Amino acid sequence: MKTLEDKLANQFGIVFADKKLLETAFTHTSYANEHRLLNISHNERLEFLGDAVLQLIISRYLFLKYPHKAEGELSKMRSMIVREESLAGFSKNCGFDHYIKLGKGEERSGGRSRTTILGDLFEAFLGALFLDAGAEAVESFLNQIMIPLVEAGDYDRVMDYKTALQELLQVDGDILIDYQVVSETGPAHEKNFEVAVSANNDILSKGNGKSKKIAEQEAAKKALEKLQRGS
């Protein structure tokens, strides 16, 4: 953890008073489960807190930054900024993927690059930072790594894959497009949904996500890519 502490101090000016919080934020459930006798805490509770803090800070930023945008536009921008894929990208940009503690099985299966794990890690870090130094410290950190991308326009054009798929399929007339949950796995606090999208009862693709909406968008995205490849 010393290397991580040095990185945070040098790159972001962050120094944790409670180093246990930082360690917990970077401990995945798989690692804690493999070391149960040591009674190690994992980062799920911090993830829960960090998600709420992130939503609030980004909501406040967008509200003040774009006074003429309607609620629907602001909601779409926020959803793109805080979606799992975006947060995983921020984790990688910060180099957090190198420091997370994973169980051996999770490590072998590529967990260090898994979007879900990296997105959750980013939220857990924000939760830990909030507890250690308050909302201003979290906001300062986000101003360094997230807000510049927002102001560069990276989130102005919201991609709704479901709408794009519908427009592509129905260009020559109505087609029945349906989304069905194929499976629902994991504990209540960490569900994973698999959704299949079909056109006129023919399955086009499947997608996964932490919510039905995310899984539907992922399925639509894969279907679009498949159709655009002509396969």
Automatic annotation (TrEMBL):
GO cellular component, one term: cytoplasm
GO biological process terms on file: mRNA processing; regulation of gene expression; rRNA processing; tRNA processing
Documented EC number(s): 3.1.26.3
UniProt xrefs under InterPro entries: dsRBD_dom (IPR014720), RNase_III (IPR011907), RNase_III_dom (IPR000999), RNase_III_sf (IPR036389)
Entry-linked Gene3D superfamilies: 3.30.160.20, Ribonuclease III domain
Binding of Mg(2+), residues: E47, D120, E123
One Pfam family this sequence matches: Ribonucleas_3_3
Keywords attached to this entry: Cytoplasm, Endonuclease, Hydrolase, Magnesium, Metal-binding, mRNA processing, Nuclease, RNA-binding, rRNA processing, rRNA-binding, tRNA processing
Subcellular location, record wording: Cytoplasm
Domain RNase III: 5-134
PROSITE patterns reported in the protein's UniProt record: DS_RBD, RNASE_3_1, RNASE_3_2
Alphabetical list of HAMAP family matching this protein: RNase_III (MF_00104)
Primary role: Digests double-stranded RNA. Involved in the processing of primary rRNA transcript to yield the immediate precursors to the large and small rRNAs (23S and 16S). Also processes some mRNAs, and tRNAs when they are encoded in the rRNA operon.
UniProt similarity note: Belongs to the ribonuclease III family.
Name used for this protein in its record: Ribonuclease 3
Protein's organism: Streptococcus macacae NCTC 11558
Gene: rnc
